[in-house]
Amino acid sequence: MSRFTRLAITHALMMAGDAAMVVALADSFFFSVDLDSARTQVMLFLAISFAPFLFVAPLIGPLIDRAAGGRRLVIQLVALVRVVLMLLMIQAIDGLGLFPLVFASLVLQKGYVISKSALVPSTVRSETELVEANSKLGLLSGLTGAVAVIPAGILLQLIGPGGALFYGAALFGAALVSAMRLPREVVADHAPDEEEETQLHSPALQLASVAMTVLRANVGFTFFHLAFWLRSQDSGTLLFGVAVGVSALATMVGNAIAPRLRDRVQEETMLSVALVLSAVAGVVLAIIGGSAAGVGLAAAVNFAAAIGRLSFESIVQRDAPGANQGRAFASFETRFQLVWALAAFIAVAIRVPGEIGFLIVGIAAAGTLANLRLGIAARFGGARRPTTRRRGRPTPGRKRPSTNASVDRSAEQAGRGQVRRRGSGRPGRATGRGRRPRSRSGRPRRR
Fold it and tell me: What CATH number is attached to the domain comprising 257?
């Protein structure tokens, strides 16, 4: 069994456990508590859960990366603790104690995603397979999540939330066993050198990271905004469940078509399209309004984030070839997950109508796109930045030949005696006005 297959099995089981937890919570105290009390609890536990993560992750991350099997150990610990949390949720299913357990699970899920992102480069044969591998994992998570909700829903109806939670605990237990078979890889055996630091701080990569940060923030904001706003509507819990399912489907579709888009357009174009999609969806659906518009927004922002994630990974692969890919992806993923949490906190803290929340998503994406366009124009003078394409494809945007027929040939051409004539911009003319008389040495004579 290949390394990637082992990671894929572990990832599928972890995503299935997440899906089972979501189904179990749909009919629990988590969605039946008073909205005001829920907001207070959610804000409190988001702050408590992610505040240590904000400071500890940058310090512990490098140590884990340099330890043999460090990221594998993190995945094992996450799976083990989530088994315990799922069992504790069964006992606290009807009390406020359910909230810290749920949000501890969310924090651990983000920690797993970071560790998984760091391990992916070590499971492929070459860097050219990296984006394809991430696309496959994205598709797999969507498929397994869709399949896992079926038995979870049956257990929810027959036994109640406790049955679905126990089923989720069993899935995380299976993920723990699978994680023990992951290779003991060292993600980064040395500190980043000057070349890696320079590549990871290149203008193109920094602009791409800003775009991806906003796309991920929109996902976190939309999830929690809909979680509270839809509950104020008729059949709100059912609608939120539909929004979660549609989001998973949209992410799966985005993961499926992103590699094909990457073969046809530049990665920067894919990020721009993702921002445009989020902006248009936010503004248009805010005008339309209604619960169905909220479900549509959930699908749009998750689809855009899937497109953006694979294009961002391709930019890292293209512009930072000398960087340690595992360490780079773990670092960026940590940043994205923290922004997701911050946006979720804002969505819970502010109380706005559903349509205003949709508009916030659209304005955030539109503003980011405008700033990125201005940033690109400022850095590159409005010129199209040439991009190196892989797989033998020609570089789009070929440089135009000079219209001024000055002496600007390459050294090789000059060595062969090929001298461009000054004149009307039509090189190669033997005669014509504007020719300056030349000496025997080939240099123009002064008049």
Answer: 1.20.1250.20
